[in-house]
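Example with several molecule types.
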Amino acid sequence: MATAGTPAGAPAGPSAGGTGAGGGDAGAAPLAVELRGITKRFPGVVANKDIELRVRRGEVHAIVGENGAGKSTLMKTLYGEHRPDEGQILLDGREVSFRSPADAIAAGIGMVHQHFMLADYFTVLENVVLGSEPTRGGRLDRATARRRITEISERYGLGLRPDDLVEDLGVGDRQRVEIAKVLYRNARTLILDEPTAVLVPQEVDELFGNLAELKREGLTVIFISHKLDEVRKVADAITVIRRGTTVGTADPRTTTARQLAEMMVGTELPSPEIRTSTVRETPVLQLREVTVAAPTGRPPVDDVTLTVREGEVVGIAGVEGNGQAELVDAVMGLRPLATGTVRLGGDDITAWSTRARREAGLGFIPEDRHRQGMLLDAPLWENRILGHQTRPPAVKGPFIDRRAARADTARIMRDYDVRAPGPDTLAVALSGGNQQKLIVGREMSARPRLLLAAHPTRGVDVGAQGAIWRLLEEARAEGMGILLVSADLDELIGLSDTLHVMLRGRLVATLDPSAVTPEELGGYMTGAQTAAGAA
Amino acid sequence: MSVLRRVGLALFAPVLAVVVAVLISSAVMAALQVDPLRAFEVMVDFGDTPSQQVTALVVVLNRAVPLFLAGLAVAIAFRMGLFNIGVEGQYRLATVVAAGVGAAVVLPGPLHVLLIVLVAMAVAAVWAGIVAVLKVTRGVSEVISSIMLNVIALGIASFLLTGPLRGSPEGASIISTAEIPESGWVPSLNGVLGALGLANPPRQLYGFLLVAVVVGAVIAVLLNRTRFGFDLRAAGLSPSAASASGVDSRGMVVKTMLLSGAVAGLIGLPDLLGSTHAYTTDFTSGLGFLGIAVALLGRNKPIGIALGALLFAFLDRALVPLQIQDFPASVVTIIQGTIVLAVVVANEVARRVARRSAERGSGPAAAVAGDGSTGPGQSTGGPGAAGGEGTGAGVSRTTGAGQRTDERQETGA
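Resulting structure tokens for the full complex:
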């Protein structure tokens, strides 16, 4: 998949126009933030590996990457929530070591969390000073606080009224309160974690206006996002993270959204070899005009129609948060449909329970295995039963067959190369890849007619990834239908027989994976390219 | 892993808790200028003659039976991550209604008892069911609703006792329901004591002991060996994973609360059918709250609950001898309270130890894993002193529990 402009692993095009020809290296002003070789491991996973980040003072620096790529881990490291196992953090050229967020705050780093941390029944003033209250004679010094907050608000154009109750504020205002909180603590570098995720377009524009003010005052902003268009609009420099490591930097002025998407999802992995189609005629899953309603706003899944046939892998591509998770839930029966029908084989399963769907031959590899796929505090053999509570071999009538469950777990561990001491091991003791292989093995063992695989290789190491891909291909060859939701373009292009692109809840394009390039696909995913002429 | 290590891990937390509780209580007693050694000596002194000793043993067992049932009722809900604080109201209401029904009918022996038992289970299950329905339809926290329903249940029980079901004459100092005819009594097990070569004590060993053992065994099998139990435990370990596996979370809430309530309905019956034969104004109260402590102590497993119930019963028995020896009765209450607090801490310590050893991959650590909801962030307020007013139970939920509630509310909306 090594496309001409972008050799494997070193996206030359974008980074050439990038950080001002290494100006930061030898330049006069030290970098506001520099991370060198940061590595952070958790039991069984390497969340960050050899991270290199160079942020100049007074710039808006975007960090982009898929969900799960390691952005949050990195920011937690920078904010002192945990310490890196290797590597250095330099602020203004000096090495620092944070024991807690308090240290980071003292060093001038502030974090605006994606989920606001505000007390609804407190006023703006009270929220801003909470935790670092100015006192006079042991009592809150409201006059001082009000003066400072007004000053901050005017200086950076935040437009805050100190006595408003936070409960009455809109999302955009709440975010500005969060920013004011950070500024009140004298932050010189602000980390904004997915700040636009909760905002409507006008609010996004206002936020960008605020960021420009911050920049003008000489503050540094680190902006985390996976929305490429916004990033290109607001950032002065971009660092891309993929699979836990920084893969390059880009200059937003000279880099297209497509190139960025390509860097984000990677193109260096070997594409599975050309193979013969195993698609048969019989449909196993048919979605007709499926719409999932949200309490407010546009429906997360909007009028989706698709068919998966026997022996076919249907891929759903899309940038995270465009309705894929809701679509998966709808197919599994975890979320009610507003309109539309779901058919499995010849049956209309629209009104069926999740259990009935599973019994009828629906297998499920969930996106978040810890949330939906496993009981972490239970032994592996109990996890073998999970999702298959009504079927042999682990169940006999109304009873659990412990012996058979253990034996079958041992078989899965052998056949699917799950590395663990034994069936009685707690699931939490396994690495992500081994947990995922157990889930895949468990779902495959039930021989489902349709396998719903959501990000099946997310967060697993390369070895397990290859193994899982192979398993999916074998199952497909045996006639299993697979609905594959992924954000990994190589995975989608390599495995799918048919590829749909999902954008804002709709299927906006249907592509032939053998003819599409990752760049084109990236274009459709971000809406930069439209379906005209496709399909 | 060796059986020894497994047992060791399982016992680690409760034993640690009891030891810590004894140490703290000793310190408190010393501060109150009570000699702790002397107090403990009185507590373990079961009397001199064989008859006295067997009597003491019978008192402990009779007390342990309702405590065991109460702990079991609480534990069933705990295993699914539900906090049935309403056991107190459930059993009091069930007992008064069952006493009324039992006194009103005459049936051949076993049938009469069976009817009383079924009525008690049904009443308590319905009362617990209200909590479940409120939770799945309106998203009301079961902690709040079950506490409130306690108050209502106690009110209704008083009304029934003083009104429609009153059997005692006007002006009697103790108001009671009419006495259940003898066909509705459960015979004592004193014959068994005799057969074992023990002295026949003046006290009657409750025949309901056998029922409790059977119920405990049934619940143990149900929770650990059946599909239903698996669904219940899965929902307790991870509601989201359980739903994705096909567990109907709303249905499980209803079923679990009905089951928990049905067991709660049995709590008052050992006393009712074994000795008092009528519900009275001074009928044993506070068992529902003590049950929370016992369940916690027993880590929500039937065997553990049985041991916890025996321990609490042993402490309760010590009340009278302590008072005779001029010790403050609060000694026992202090020990019970510190045990509960220590258990909460010790459980969390044991959970972390097990989890850490699991994460290091040093093999299975199933001991702590099994009991789902008991792990983090749950604490119980001081249990009511024996026979006294339940002091209420403050239960707080932290890690994970909040999210769990949210999810249920989502599906309930």
